[in-house]
Amino acid sequence: MKTLPNKTSVAPLLYALLVGLLSGCSAGFHQPTKTRNARPGEETAATADLRRLPAPKEKIVAAVYKFRDQTGQYKPTESGAGWSTAVSQGTTSILLKALEESGWFVPIERENVGDLMNERKIVRMSMAQARQETDNLPPLLFAGIILEGGIVSYDANTITGGAGLRFFGTGGSSQYRQDRVTVYLRAVATKTGRILKTVYTSKTILSQSVDAGTFRYVSFKRLLEAETGFATNEPSQLAVTEAIEKAVHSLVLEGIRDHLWTVSEPAAEQADAALAAYEREKAAMSETDLYGGRNTSETSRLTLQPYVSALRYKGDYAAPGFRTGYGLAVDVYLSRHFGLQLNAGTGTLGAGRAFSQSVTSVQGSLLYRSLPFRKMTPLVSVGAGMIAARSGSAPGPEGRKYPLLTGGFGVEYALGPAVGLRTMLEYQQPMTDELDATTAGRYYDYYLRGSAGLCIYLGRPLRR
Question: What is the pTM of this model?
Fold first, then answer.
């Protein structure tokens, strides 16, 4: 009969789960156990950037007629799409607030200009009745530019995922989902109708949930059941606000760069610094893909990797053993993704005191890099070679030699243009059952090799 795991076997899992909940789940400490008072609206990360823009030489009178949701996207639910829209329908008000925060524009009312005209008529009538004369109201401001555009895309579930662990009725899980909203904004000259500048920005919307629980018998007829968890959803309104504020920020800086409008003389140095920072941000975005990954590494055609390794032997002896080794790998990349590797390594295979054998292996492999221009890229290798059992301590292909098949995966991290780090885990399958000088069972001996070492990049970098 199977026995239940004792208390000490479950405690480490509970402690790890508790630490994960406490460290990564700050929202769990702000549970809404009572009502809260109204408060001013939250600011976004782009609000501070708007306020730090250099001062203009003269503010621009800007009109916004309609800046709306153009996606037609309804909010996704578990049972399908509902009738609630995925994003706010009040984006014109958000844009007007962003224009005011920037300090570069004088926003004028155009969305409900009919209401404004009716009110001016009422004012004239009231003034005429009170004074028995018609006083002229000041004329309405006319706009130098009209700001157009809107929310053009709302993409749900661009990234989804999660992780979980449950052992003997105790464990936890985490799930996340990322959406994406995209905003376009353009400035149109009112006198000519010319489109002066068009910018677009995007913002991700993160939703995540964490839960943990246990369900197990602690003793005969004593059942313990406990669970906890929470979910957080980034408000879509704040995401839209940040995307619009970033669009206004970009519009002002690109207009300064293209001499569409000018800054005040005291703010000239501040404008140069802001433009330099903006150009760096644009350059970084040109290297960033849809999912936030950025190509920042220059991949070379030739790589040398000296490494140290740990070998775990599994053969005809009952207990597997760990030994160490070292080696050198040379990679020659034929394209950005594929390369050839020549790997020579030496080490010791062992199983306790019963077996110890020095071996040398030479193998050729095909390498595949899925993210060749990232600082961190996964690696997959498959190949074949030769393994030789050695006598004595000097490395070399002496004694018995056997064919060898190998395959593995790993990760490479570029520390800079000339050096990086690589770690690999490889399955080594000699085509013999006599590697340990003992023949037993139906399967060949094998071992696992884990390696870590420096990558030295040589030669010309590959083109992107």
Answer: 0.71
